[in-house]
Write a structure and sequence with these properties.
The protein is of the alpha/beta class. Helix content is about 25%, strand content about 20%. It has a domain of about 200 residues: L-arginine/glycine Amidinotransferase, Chain A (5-stranded Propeller). The N terminus is likely disordered.
């Protein structure tokens, strides 16, 4: 395999330690964003609905819920790393979007909204100071990590709506994975759905939650062609971030407490569910998947 030049930082961590080859290998290290300066911004359909129906933001409740999620990661045995807070970045809490992890290091992304553009700085500083390899930086347009998923070894899906992620940036990502011999599937969807992780989430090897009412048939066929079975949730659940989950590995998954239908389905599949309440945060447009970025997962067999 020919690797691109890595950008190494000054930390003491072993560069070969970091990376993921799936969304479901056992999670050992995770990056979370800060809650200190979080407040709702009407930049997506979920946050707009929260304001329209009269919900009120409670900073103290958001802090408690963020702590509950961090505790769930720690209970699951993951080492929690944190981005440095910046008072000018109200959506820095959603650490998923400013970077993505690959088998070869991190990719620094480029968020769409002006009030989120600066998130790359704290993200870049974290990787450099921690000594975690940086594979590359998106420069061809905007791209956010909520649209990116390493579905299994050798296979990536990346959504783009033309707003939060744009086709030129996704094509740039695709070229890097093609150079590594990986399959990269770009998927266009309506911007109403924010990110791909509003519609789809990996739960375990060969198992995902999906809103099949809105995911195009060709995408569903492609997923099933890769041996991924879909647990179906309705549109209302998806827009309540019912697909926004984090696989923890070893038959465990992190699911928002509000996703009662999905929690029941996961348990029926034999999965152990961690279900923190993140309702005050998710009303601003992001749940558990949006709030974290896997830094390291144990490698999984390519046949899964």
């Amino acid at each position: 395999m020919t690797l691109r030049t890595r950008i190494e930082g000054g930390g003491t961590a072993r560069p070969e330690y970091w990376g993921i080859d799936s969304e479901y290998g056992r999670l050992t290290d995770v990056l979370v964003g800060p809650v200190e300066h979080f407040s709702w911004r009407a930049g997506n359909a979920v946050a707009q609905r929260s304001e329209r129906v009269g919900l009120k933001f409670d900073a103290a409740a958001a802090r408690r819920q963020h702590g509950e999620m961090v505790h769930a990661f720690e209970q699951a045995g993951a080492h929690v790393h944190r981005l440095q807070p910046d008072e000018r970045l109200p959506y820095q809490i959603f650490a998923r979007d400013s970077s993505v992890m690959t088998p070869w290091g991190a990719v620094i992304m480029q968020p769409h909204y002006p009030f989120r553009r600066g998130e790359y700085a704290a993200c870049l500083r974290f990787y450099l100071e921690a000594g975690i390899p940086i594979y590359d930086l998106v420069t061809a347009g905007v791209a956010e990590g909520g649209d990116f998923m390493v579905l299994k070894p050798g296979v990536v899906a990346c959504g783009y709506s033309g707003v939060r992620s744009t086709e030129p940036a996704v094509q740039q990502l695709s070229s890097w994975f093609a150079a590594e011999g990986w399959e990269f599937h770009g998927y266009a969807f309506d911007p109403h759905f924010l990110h791909l992780d509003v519609q789809l989430g990996m739960l375990a090897p060969g198992l995902a939650v999906a809103c099949t009412e809105v995911i195009e048939p060709e995408m569903q066929q492609w997923l099933r062609g890769h041996g991924i079975r879909l647990l179906e949730v309705p549109y209302a659940d998806a827009m309540n971030l019912g697909c926004n989950v984090v696989a923890l590995g070893d038959g465990r998954v992190l699911v928002p407490a509000s996703s009662r239908r999905l929690i029941a389905m996961c348990r029926a599949e034999g999965l152990v569910v961690y279900d923190p309440d993140v309702s005050m945060i998710s009303a601003g447009g992001g749940a558990v998947h949006c709030m974290c970025q896997a830094l390291r997962r144990e490698p999984v067999a390519a046949a899964t």
